[in-house]
C-alpha cells in the first residue's frame, strides 16, 4: 500500500516533506509495512480516508498523536496519506483538477510537518484529522487561501439569514483558511485567490452553488484593529467580512500557537519582533484575551454579490 524504499522519497518530496524528515520516514517504513498489526491498521485508516471520496463532511476524524509519542505514533498518519494518495489523485483527475492545484493542495502535508518540527523539534504531524479534508477531496489550495467545501453551521447560518441572505444552516458554503508559510496575506493575493476559486468551483463542481464564504479565525478578532495599522494586511482582510456571530469564550492559545509556534509558551517571554507579535503578546500581558472571530461575505461570483446589495465593506 505504500511505495518501496526507493520510490518513497520522491513521493514525500512531491508532498512538500522537508528533506530532513525523509530519511527518518524511509527508515521507519519497515515497521509500517512488515508488521501485520500496523499494516492492518493502515489499511483500515486508508479505507476511511478514501471511502465516499469527495462527499462533504465524510472525511475521517483521526485523533492527534500524543505529545512525545514515539516516531511511529507521530508519523503513522504520513503513511496513511501516502497510501491514500493514488485514490485522491484519481479523484482529482476525474474532476479535471489541474495537476498543479492537486500537488499544491496535497503538499499541505509537508507544511504541517514543518509546523510540527517548529513546535516540537521532531518529525511528525499533529493536526492529523485536518489533512483528511485535503486527501478526501473536500479542500483545495487556490493561491494564497484554502477553500473547504462545507455547509453552514447553526450559528453562522442563522446570523447570515438575519443579514438578509436567502440561506440557512446546512446550506453550502466555502470555508476559508489561511495557511502559514505562504507569504503576505495581501489584498492582491486574496483577490487573485478568490478569482481563481470562482473559476475553479464553477468548472470542477458545477452542480454545487456557493453563495457565501465563511471564516472562523482568531485573525477576525476585531481587537486586532486597536494594535495594527488600518492599512495592514490583517485589518484589510478583516474588512472583507461581516460578523456572523460573536464568540464570548477566550481562546488565547490559538493566536499564541499560530504566531509563535507553541500555544503553551509563557506570555511574559513572547517576542515583540513584528506588529502582530507585539499585538498578540502585549494584549495578553495587559490582561486581555483573544477570541475566535466568525465572519462571512457574499462570494464575488454569486448572484447576491452581483446585485451589490450586501457587499458593502466586503
Written overview of the protein:
The chain has 314 residues and is α+β, with helices and mostly antiparallel strands. The chain has 13 helices and 6 strands. The chain has a 6-stranded mixed β-sheet with strand order 1-2-3-4-6-5. The chain is globular. Mean pLDDT is 93; it is low at 306-314.
Which features does this protein show?
47% helix; globular
Quick overview:
The chain has 314 residues and is an alpha+beta fold. 47% of the residues lie in helices and 11% in strands.
**SSE order in H/E notation?**
HHHHHHHEEHEHEHEHHEH
Rounded to an integer in angstroms, the radius of gyration calculated over CA atoms is 20 Å
Number of helices: 13
Major sheet characteristics? 6 strands, mixed
- List the uncertain runs: 306-314
* Strand adjacency order, main sheet: 1-2-3-4-6-5
Which structural class should the secondary elements be placed in? alpha+beta
Beta strand count: 6
Cα-to-Cα separation, first versus last residue: 46 Å
The outline comes out as: globular
Helix content: 40-55%
Quote the beta fraction: 5-15%
Query: Mean pLDDT score, rounded?
Result: 93
Amino acid at each position: 500500500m505504500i511505495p518501496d524504499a526507493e520510490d518513497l522519497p520522491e513521493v514525500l518530496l512531491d508532498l512538500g516533506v522537508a528533506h530532513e524528515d525523509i530519511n527518518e520516514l524511509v527508515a521507519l517504513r519497515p515497521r509500517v509495512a512488515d508488521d501485520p498489526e500496523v499494516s492492518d491498521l493502515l489499511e483500515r485508516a486508508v479505507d476511511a480516508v478514501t471511502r465516499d471520496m469527495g462527499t462533504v463532511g465524510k472525511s475521517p476524524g483521526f485523533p492527534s498523536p500524543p505529545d512525545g509519542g514515539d516516531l511511529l505514533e507521530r508519523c503513522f498518519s504520513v503513511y496513511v496519506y501516502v497510501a491514500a494518495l493514488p485514490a485522491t489523485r484519481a479523484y482529482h483527475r476525474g474532476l479535471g483538477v489541474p495537476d498543479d492545484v492537486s500537488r499544491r493542495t496535497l503538499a499541505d502535508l509537508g507544511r504541517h510537518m514543518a509546523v510540527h518540527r517548529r513546535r516540537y523539534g521532531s518529525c511528525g504531524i499533529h493536526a492529523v484529522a485536518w489533512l483528511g479534508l485535503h486527501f478526501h477531496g473536500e479542500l483545495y489550495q487556490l493561491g494564497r487561501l484554502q477553500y473547504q467545501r462545507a455547509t453552514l453551521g447553526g450559528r453562522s447560518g442563522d446570523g447570515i439569514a438575519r443579514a438578509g441572505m436567502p440561506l440557512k444552516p446546512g446550506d453550502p458554503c466555502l470555508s476559508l483558511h489561511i495557511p502559514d508559510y505562504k507569504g503576505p496575506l495581501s489584498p492582491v493575493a486574496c483577490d487573485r485567490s478568490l478569482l481563481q476559486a470562482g473559476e475553479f468551483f464553477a468548472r470542477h463542481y458545477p452542480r454545487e452553488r456557493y453563495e457565501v464564504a465563511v471564516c472562523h479565525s482568531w485573525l477576525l478578532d476585531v481587537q486586532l484593529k486597536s494594535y495594527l495599522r488600518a492599512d495592514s494586511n490583517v485589518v484589510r482582510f478583516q474588512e472583507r467580512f461581516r460578523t456572523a456571530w460573536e464568540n464570548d469564550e477566550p481562546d488565547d492559545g490559538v493566536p499564541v500557537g499560530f504566531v509563535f509556534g507553541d500555544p503553551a509558551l509563557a506570555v511574559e517571554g513572547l517576542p515583540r519582533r513584528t506588529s502582530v507579535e507585539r499585538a498578540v503578546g502585549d494584549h495578553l500581558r495587559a490582561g486581555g484575551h483573544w477570541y475566535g472571530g466568525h465572519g462571512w461575505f457574499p462570494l464575488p461570483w454569486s448572484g447576491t454579490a452581483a446585485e451589490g446589495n450586501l457587499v458593502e465593506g466586503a
